[in-house]
């Protein structure tokens, strides 16, 4: 190992090495680029590499992730990181340079995440809190922040989850939101109360940068948000709704939607009957959006 003490670049992404034993990385103090992909590494040891500029690897557990982040207390985290947690049920491609993948994990206690995370993926996980507790409230940043850097969020096959966001934890700069195969999910943005009063001001959630919204195979999904709320989407280019039979209302406010507007939008729907029965807050929305709709059979 003494001969490798000056090593700056370590790439094991195409190797068959399953794990880097404890005590190895701590001796590579000059490492700037660590790409071990699926190989297990100690997050605690990675966090002590002070010259690190890029890291991709698989950590042991959430405690290991927390120890990795604690290692950067008082100094900047690597500008590029892709960290995998748990088992990978199927291949996942992280599209940004700052992403976390949670695969086949039990989500119970709060999970510490990097303050500048841009992409978060959770697949084949189990939510081990009360079913009425919003899943996203389990994620916290290393600094007091609002997930302002998070642009891509995808969850797939998360069990025992009825609610995704509470009103105060919706990532406002999201560009892509994809939810699929979460068979118990009922609400995406869940309020703590239901208003029985008519004529109250409509609550607005602004997702002004959202470009892509995909909802697939969600048999219990009943609402995107409360009956007295709408989601303002000024940048939406893609809507996909597939096999969400209990979703009756689309509370999406599209300010750019006008007759003969140059709006470029793709809408993919299954089944056709859902589109015909779905209600939009804007009474003209369905007729204006009709030209963008594609009915899929798969």
TrEMBL record:
- Coiled-coil spans in chain: none
This one is known as Disease resistance protein At4g27190-like leucine-rich repeats domain-containing protein
Alphabetically ordered keywords of this record? Plant defense
Keyword Manganese in the entry? The reply is no
Q: Where is the Disease resistance protein At4g27190-like leucine-rich repeats domain?
A: 146-250
According to its UniProt entry, this protein's organism is: Gossypium klotzschianum
Signal peptide (residue range): none
Fetch the SUPFAM superfamilies from UniProt.
L domain-like (SSF52058)
């Amino acid at each position: 190992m003494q001969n490798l003490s000056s090593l700056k670049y370590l790439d094991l992404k195409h190797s068959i090495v399953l794990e880097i034993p404890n005590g190895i990385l701590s001796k590579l103090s000059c490492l700037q680029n660590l790409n071990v992909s699926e190989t297990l590494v100690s997050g605690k040891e990675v966090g002590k590499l002070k010259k690190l500029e890029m890291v991709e690897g698989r950590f042991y557990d959430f405690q290991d992730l927390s120890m990795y982040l604690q290692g950067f207390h008082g100094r900047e985290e690597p500008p590029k990181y892709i960290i995998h947690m748990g088992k990978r049920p199927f291949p996942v491609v992280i599209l940004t340079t700052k992403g976390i993948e949670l695969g086949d994990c039990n989500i119970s206690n709060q999970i510490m995440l990097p303050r500048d995370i841009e992409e978060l993926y959770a697949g084949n996980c189990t939510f081990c809190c009360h079913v009425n507790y919003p899943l996203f409230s389990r994620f916290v940043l290393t600094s007091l922040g609002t997930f302002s850097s998070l642009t891509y969020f995808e969850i797939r096959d998360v069990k025992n989850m009825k609610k995704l966001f509470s009103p105060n934890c919706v990532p406002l700069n999201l560009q892509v939101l994809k939810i699929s195969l979460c068979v118990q999910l009922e609400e995406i943005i869940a309020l703590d109360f239901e208003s029985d009063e008519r004529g109250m001001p409509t609550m607005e959630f602004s997702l002004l940068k959202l470009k892509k919204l995909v909802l697939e195979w969600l048999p219990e999904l009943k609402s995107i948000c409360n009956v007295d709320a709408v989601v303002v989407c000024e940048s939406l280019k893609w809507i996909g709704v597939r096999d969400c039979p209990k979703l009756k209302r689309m509370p999406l406010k599209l300010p750019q939607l006008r007759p003969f507007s140059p709006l470029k939008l793709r809408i993919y729907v299954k089944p056709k009957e859902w589109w015909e029965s779905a209600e939009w807050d804007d009474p003209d929305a369905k007729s204006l959006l009709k030209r963008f709709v594609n009915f899929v059979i798969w």
